[in-house]
Design brief:
It contains 23 helices and 16 strands. By secondary structure, the protein is an alpha/beta fold. The protein has three domains: 3-24 and 167-277, Glucose Oxidase, domain 1 (3-Layer(bba) Sandwich); 36-148, Enzyme I, Chain A, domain 2, CATH 1.10.274.10; 284-590, Alpha-Beta Barrel (TIM Barrel). The strands form two sheets. The chain has an eight-stranded mixed sheet. Strands 15-14-13-12-11-10-9-16 form an eight-stranded parallel sheet. A hairpin with a 4-residue loop joins strand 7 and strand 8 (251-254). The structure holds phosphoenolpyruvate and magnesium ion. Phosphoenolpyruvate (PEP) binds at residues 217, 319, 321, 361, 457, 478-481, 528-529.
């Protein structure tokens, strides 16, 4: 039966494929396709992993066999029996074989997929005791996964499966392996998302998350259709269901009828044609009708993204979110050399164009690692995040500063500092930048010049620009956080997403004021939050005087198209009217 789920549109386009349900805690399991010739070896890997856990349980059973009920209570022996039974369950074994043989999933992916299928059956059981066995099943799966880690994968190169283009009718009938897959999870962390850079998935859906949560931002950078905040989707959709993602409308259609499928197939082709047309603008300079040159920069998460940024027509990187180098490493932070090499790769990848590297911004919805999730503090977004974290750990910060300064010897680099608010933080930051230079001098290591900029992303900073303009070479407005902190809306919380409004008068005043004051002082101002890539806001930002936009590369050409049609001399007066409105959104929507 066809039904739809409504969420938040975060990454544009239409994706049509089969659902792959993944428990959030297991997303960091590798997902790739194997070659048909590797099926037996992958099945063997699961078997060896499973046998290792069975042996471990047998050993445990033997060691407690002679103990009394005090040391080895009856519950423990019963539990071990249940675990053994589950490990030998035909559903688990046959299911895993099916995913490997018929779908060519790698062993870990096959195991976790089958776990989801069985877990769903447990959820539906009436009997509470049986329902609770789901936790046992999860435990043994974790154990097998861990045991498998020691069993090297014979697959050195994941199969790069290219999807054959199919008609919608073909898709419905298809049961072969080359059908697009849609990932569905309750939640995905930003570091989970990074794994999908080389993704086998054609789109993804999460139950939670806001439009500018970091998970959504990474999704946009992957440039695949995605919907977040689609509550309960991970419970309502079943493994292997046909699913359509309408990333423009934020809608998920489950089990579509042939008519709906045909309609979305048409939309999908239309979308591809529109994108194809935009590529004609690739080499057109971004200049408005009245001759204003506009700088279009890219936001990137990893050094390798620089190549895509150049291809997309960016004239530089306006925001390299360096924290992604720090995430998902079980707390082991990258050392100076590793960071230096990463920044250098990004700089060299940009082929002489400038790269603005933002110092690490972890905390809030960007935990270093899943195990570092900040549950201890009530308001992590207001806590030890970004520059506050860096200043609290000067050795870590100095390591990063030295690495960036060294990389700056290989091309144009700028340093960008996030979340500043106090003059004392600014002074402290500059003192540490000086110290990093001295340390490199003392070691006789070469480094390059950098311009230093501040992110304006806290209202207090936007209201006290004088001190920022005194110290910094340029400003970059982080509208994602500026909106969050101005409106007191958690950007990652879908339940208040309808109140997260870039067009709130207070937000617009802070943005416009920052652009105007920066320009008046002759200091470059850029916007690097998601507002910069939103084509419905391009004209307004131009009217406010913005001349530098930084966004994820996939949006650059669409924004350029808006710029080519704009006349800033006319937009300035209109932007003033918008700023004076009580409900600017209405005027912008009408225009
Ligand atoms: C912002 O806050 O707008 C920004 C660009 O930084 P981030 O999204 O990484 O917090
Ligand atoms: Mg920010």
């Amino acid at each position: 039966m066809t039904f739809s789920i409504h969420g938040l549109a975060v990454a544009r386009g239409i994706a049509i494929g089969r659902a792959v349900l993944v428990a959030s805690s297991r997303v960091d399991v590798a997902h790739y396709f194997i070659e048909a010739t590797q099926v037996d070896e992958e099945i063997d890997r699961v078997r060896i992993g499973r046998n290792a856990v069975v042996d471990e349980i047998h050993r445990l059973q033997a060691s407690i066999a002679h103990m009394g009920p005090k040391e080895a209570p009856h519950e423990l022996t019963a539990l071990l029996d249940v675990h053994l039974m589950l490990l030998q369950d035909a559903d688990l074994i046959d299911g895993v074989k099916h995913w490997i043989t018929d779908r060519l999933y790698n062993a870990e992916w096959a195991l976790t997929t089958q776990l989801e299928v069985i877990a769903r059956q447990f959820d539906e059981m009436e009997d509470e005791y049986l329902r609770e066995r789901k936790a046992d099943l999860e435990q043994i799966t974790e154990k097998v996964l861990r045991a498998m880690k020691g069993v090297a994968s014979p697959v050195t190169q994941p199969a790069n499966r290219t999807l054959r283009k199919k008609s919608q009718q073909d898709l419905l009938l298809d049961d072969t392996v080359d059908v697009p897959l849609i990932l569905i999870a309750h939640d995905l962390s930003p570091s989970d998302m990074l794994q999908f850079k080389q993704s086998v998935f054609a789109g993804f859906i999460t139950d939670v998350g806001g439009k500018t949560s970091h998970t959504a931002i990474v999704a946009r950078s992957l440039d695949i259709p995605a919907v977040v905040g689609a509550r309960l989707s991970s419970q309502l959709v079943r493994q292997d269901d046909w699913v359509i993602i309408d990333g423009d409308a934020g809608v998920v259609v489950v089990d579509p009828s042939p008519i709906i499928l045909a309609e979305y197939g048409f939309k999908q082709r239309q979308h591809e044609l529109d994108r194809g047309r935009l590529t004609r603008l690739l080499h057109t300079p971004a200049v408005t009708l009245d001759g204003q040159k506009i700088e279009l920069l890219a936001n990137i998460e990893m050094p390798e993204d620089a190549i895509g940024a150049v291809k997309a027509g960016a004239v530089g990187v306006g925001l390299f979110r360096s924290e992604f180098l720090f995430m998902g490493r079980q707390g082991k932070l990258p050392n100076e050399e590793e960071q230096y090499q990463a920044y250098r790769r990004a700089i060299e990848g940009m082929e002489g164009l400038p790269v603005t590297i933002r110092t690490v911004d972890v905390g809030a919805d960007k935990p270093l690692d899943k195990s570092f999730q900040d549950d201890a503090h009530l308001n992590p977004a207001l806590g030890l995040r970004a520059i506050r974290w860096s200043l609290a750990d000067p050795a870590m910060f100095l390591t990063q500063l030295r690495a960036i300064l060294r990389a700056a010897a290989h091309g144009q680099a700028n340093l960008l500092i996030p979340m500043l608010v106090h003059a004392s933080e600014i002074r402290h930051t500059f003192a540490l930048i000086d110290r990093a230079r001295v340390e490199l001098d003392n070691r006789g290591v070469a480094y390059g010049p950098v311009k230093v900029g501040a992110m304006i992303e806290i209202p207090a900073a936007a209201l006290t620009l004088k001190v920022f303009l005194k110290y910094f070479d340029f400003l970059s407005i982080g509208t994602n956080d500026l909106i969050q902190y101005t409106l007191a809306i958690d950007r990652a919380d879908e339940s208040v997403a309808h109140l997260y409004d870039p067009l709130h008068p207070a937000v617009l005043r802070l943005v416009a004021g920052t652009i105007a004051e920066g320009r008046a002082q002759g200091k470059p101002v850029s916007v690097c939050g998601e507002m910069a890539g939103d084509t419905t806001l391009t004209r307004l930002l131009l009217g406010m005087g913005l001349r530098s936009f930084s966004m994820h590369p996939a949006q650059i050409l669409a924004v350029k198209q808006e710029i080519l049609r704009a006349d800033t001399s006319k937009l300035a007066g209109w932007a003033e009217q918008v700023l004076a409105d009580d409900e600017p959104g209405l005027r912008v929507a009408r225009s």
